[in-house]
Amino acid sequence: MFALFRQRLRRDWLQLLLWILATVMMAYAGFAGVTQSYGTHADRVDVLAAVMANPVIMMFRGLPSGASEGAFLSFEILPWLTMLAALMSTFLAVRHTRGDEEAGRSELVAATPAGRTRPTAAALLLGLLADVVLGLLVAASLIGSGLDAEGSWLTGAVTATSGIAFLGIGLMAAQLMRTSRGANSLTIWILVATFLINGIGNVAGTPSDDLTRIDSAWPVWLSPFGWAEQARPYDTNAWGPALLGLAFGLVLAVIAIALQSVRDMGEGFVPARDGRRYARPALSGPQALVWRLTSGGIIGWAIGGALVGILATTLSGLAGEISGSNPAVQEILDKIAKAGSIDETLITVFFTMLGVLAACAAVQIVVRARQEEAHGTAESVLAQPVGRVRWLADYVLVATFAVIIICGAAMGAAYLGLMANDGKAELFRVVTVVGFGQMLAACVFTVVAALLFVLIPRATIPLAWAVVLLATVFGMFGPLFGLPEWTTKFSPFAVAPIVSNGDVDVRGVWWLVLAVAVGAVASLSLMRRRELHPVG
């Protein structure tokens, strides 16, 4: 098993190093941003008070546990530290189990004395090591920043145990699904669902009288993210919830290894649907093939978009309920109303998240072209009377339609939410403006991924996802990390049109249109001279 472990470490060391460094840098930069932007106790109290009045912030930030520097830092960045650890762990688990099985490597290893379960055990060991190293470095970076040692060690521990929990989820998903794509999709949906469940539990919690702390509602105990936050680093420093993630992940890992030993190689416990005997007429062209390959993912992303839309137009009522039970929250809401509509703010923030979802869907579709090329299946299509420009254009076109479908689903759900709650007429315009704005922003990432595919084919997948991540960090978390305000303009999500106090601010709409047009023309033009690179 240790030989298999070393092989996996040699194969993944650079990728794991990048994940770990990015997470540790987020922890260190988060502390620098907190001290620069919220240097006084009064500043942090004001921010936490505003959080109590704005449910959307609690949905996408951490659990308020006090106004000290450490507790405030935990509120700001702990969900994102745990999410990065979860993504690193799930991708690692699927890559070294179901991914190897798809590629035919697992069958070769199983024919040796290593057997069928040791490769999975080696993947588990590598994941545990990566999460432990990540937790230790996060703790060390926070201690080095001058924060309390116990709270820092606990922050590192919950980061690591959250990763271990999702390592177990990834190993289980690899046993259940027949493809690595299906396993990754399942883990992402579990991650998103548990993140939202934790956010809902925090939103439905009870704020303290001084508006610096929330006692969460029971749904948080259904989520690994909730377990991490209930540890409350730099406040009560409860180690018990931190151990839940460790126990949960290890139990799932043991079950996954047991399932690996009894199922057939190449099969999954979720049965595959039988295909049609004869193809539909609609599958007669290459574009239809792209639709067929990506339709399941598009449907999933559209469901996520609809969920974002309905939440964007229903959470303002929850803010009113919270304010009714706490006069201090009502006072904060009154201040927000003078500066701008809380409903406008909620819709804008939620639809910015929608833009990120739509961009992820578009990138996933365009990088599918690289996967088809690397696996050699693109050659079968291009051997037909299909030019390489037409082939790439089909992926770009389907990705664009996917963005329209996802944003359209969100806008439709938002309209229904407004009608069900007797929403103001002007909010329909807010949904329309920010919906189309984020649709345009997501299209920028479609053409960026296509350009990367043409110019740097072997690095398409990591670079395309890195661009989305950087745009999200600059657009949504730049001020948190103490970055200058002008850096947000590098993010298409941050320069998309919005509505403020009833007025439409077009912001960078023409730059977005120009970027989409130039990117589309450049990628398709350069594709004429590009050779295939089938080896990944």
Describe the structure.
The protein has two domains: 1-265, no CATH class; 285-529, no CATH class. 73% of the residues lie in helices and 2% in strands. The chain has 19 helices and four strands. The longest helix has 36 residues, at 2-37. Mean pLDDT is 84; it is low at 320-326 and 332-340.
Give the SSE order as H and E letters. HHHHHHHHEEHHHHHHHHHHEEH
Q: Which runs of at least 5 residues are low in confidence (pLDDT < 50)?
A: 320-326, 332-340
Sum up the overall morphology in one term.
globular
The largest pleated sheet is described as: 2 strands, antiparallel
Task: Provide a brief overview of the structure.
The chain is an all-alpha fold.
Write the layout of secondary structure elements.
Elements: H1 2-37, H2 41-53, H3 55-60, H4 69-103, H5 105-110, H6 118-144, H7 149-176, H8 180-203, E1 206-207, E2 214-215, H9 224-230, H10 240-260, H11 286-312, H12 315-325, H13 327-339, H14 342-374, H15 378-382, H16 388-420, H17 425-455, H18 460-477, E3 498-500, E4 503-505, H19 509-526
Antiparallel strand pairs: 1-2, 3-4
Helix pairs in contact: 1-4, 1-6, 2-13, 4-6, 4-7, 4-8, 6-7, 7-8, 7-9, 7-10, 9-10, 11-14, 11-16, 12-13, 14-16, 14-17, 14-18, 16-17, 17-18, 17-19
